[in-house]
Amino acid sequence: MSRGKRYEEPKLNMKKVFAVIIAFIVIIMFIFMIRGFLTQDEEQTKIVSKTYFSAFQNNKWGVIDETGAAVIDPSYEEMVIVPNSKKDVFLCIYDVNYETGEYSTKALNSKNEEIFTQYDQIEAIGVIDNNEQASYVENLLKVQKDGKYGLINLDGRELQTCQYDQITSLQGLTDVVKVQKDGKYGLVNQEGKEIVSVQYADIQPLGQNNSSNFIVVNDEGKYGVVSNNNEVVLATNYEQVEDVYSANYFVVQKDGKEILVKKDGTEVVLNGLDEITGILKNEENGVIFVQGEKYGVMNLSGEVIIEAQYDDLKEAKSGIFIAEQNGKYGIIDEQKNEKVGFTYQNISYYEKADLYVGEDESFNNSIIDSNFEVKQTGILVDIDEEKGYLELRQNDEYNYYNFKFETQKAADIFTSHTLFLSKKDGKFGFVDKDGNVVVDYIYDDATEQNDYGYAGIKKDGKWGSIDQKGTVVQEPTYDLEDYLKIDFVGRWHYGKDLNMNYYNQL
């Protein structure tokens, strides 16, 4: 009798086994790919987060990063230019011949390697704005090869070949450059596109910080306006186009007289004025004019709305004017009603915040709301229209307010900061976001922590710095009484000349 089996032994299904193995391998590969992407993203984030500054030490120039570490050791006689603080592209000038004006240039990266070596010269394109502040054209470098100039971006990509006789900036504009070729001028934007063809005897900006329209001059010396799409907005028929911007009107000179010209060519002749200095925000309401060195307002029918009796006049918002009289500034409306008396050395209007800042002879500020009421006084340290806050120094303390003039905590504004300035018994210290004391109240003055984690501390008339943990990085040894801005990156303090944007260390 044969013996039966208690159970049948299972046989391996090899197709299923292979499928499971392959799926397992795919999962492992997927995990490694994701990990690789994450690692790559982390590395890219680290690179992006780097910030670079020109640095000055022992009469030599170099570059530091946001930790205060030297990236390019201070060894150059001339300032090392950092065109974009987020890009590790640094421009050095060397072998300067001060008699002939000749010099050599090179570009370095954060590894101190020379880059963009295919060019004879490489330079940033400096810009001076309407407040005489210096900066650089965004994302563009001027390069030279065989006596001609071209453009590259900060990654080294060629945007315009070396074909121009010269490349310069326009006042106040960081997103466009003026190019010259065979005695003619045109414009190129930061993407490298020629937005105004090279055909004019000259090109200038139209209005402050306006990159949409430009004043051009033809070979006969006649003026007109072109757009940033190379379209003729106003034909070159005039003796002059004034630097007064409006969406629909232009101030021009014709037959020796200033007139208004609409985009469709309609001319508006206004009598009884010497000069037009502004077009009102509601354009159909008229212009700001000068007569006998005094300012007033006239509508487009030639009727004087505000007599020419002010030493200066600028429209803050529609129907509201900041005026100067007898050396003092106030605010008036179209009916000449004094909304704010003529008591200030200067008044500025912040459009996004819809508030006014008046400054007196002692540099104290009055913060004035849209109803022309003084809501706060003190020394204005900062106003950030994007984040919606203002910082005032009041009674030797730093206070924050939103644009409704409600008190704000520094921790609610600077959410990434670890330390916050605090004052007790006349001394300054630092607390964490929960109000716990991290740095004792031992300093005579101090600054809020900056975006790089450092704060300034003052003791016995000298300044130093602490890091994001409250550890002293630089003992208070710097005499910065004449400095307009107190700021630290590690042991480096901000330079005295605000236009140069650099950090200094003894």
Q: What average pLDDT do the residues reach?
A: 90
The poorly predicted ranges are 1-34, 36-48
What's the Cα radius of gyration?
A: 31 Å
Report how far the terminal alpha carbons are from each other: 106 Å
- What's the β-strand tally? 47
Broad structural category: mainly beta
Number of helices: 2
The major pleated sheet works out as: 7 strands, antiparallel
Beta-strand content: over 45%
Estimate the global geometry from the Cα principal axes.
flat
Question: How are the SSEs ordered, and which strands pair?
Answer:
Blueprint: H1 14-49, E1 52-57, E2 60-65, E3 70-76, E4 90-97, E5 102-108, E6 114-115, E7 121-128, E8 134-145, E9 148-152, E10 158-164, E11 166-170, E12 173-181, E13 184-189, E14 194-200, E15 202-205, E16 213-217, E17 223-227, E18 232-238, E19 240-241, E20 249-254, E21 257-262, E22 267-268, E23 275-279, E24 287-291, E25 294-298, E26 304-310, E27 312-317, E28 320-325, E29 328-333, E30 338-344, E31 346-350, E32 355-359, E33 365-368, E34 374-384, E35 389-394, E36 397-402, E37 407-408, H2 410-413, E38 420-424, E39 427-431, E40 437-443, E41 445-446, E42 455-459, E43 462-466, E44 472-478, E45 488-489, E46 492-494, E47 502-505
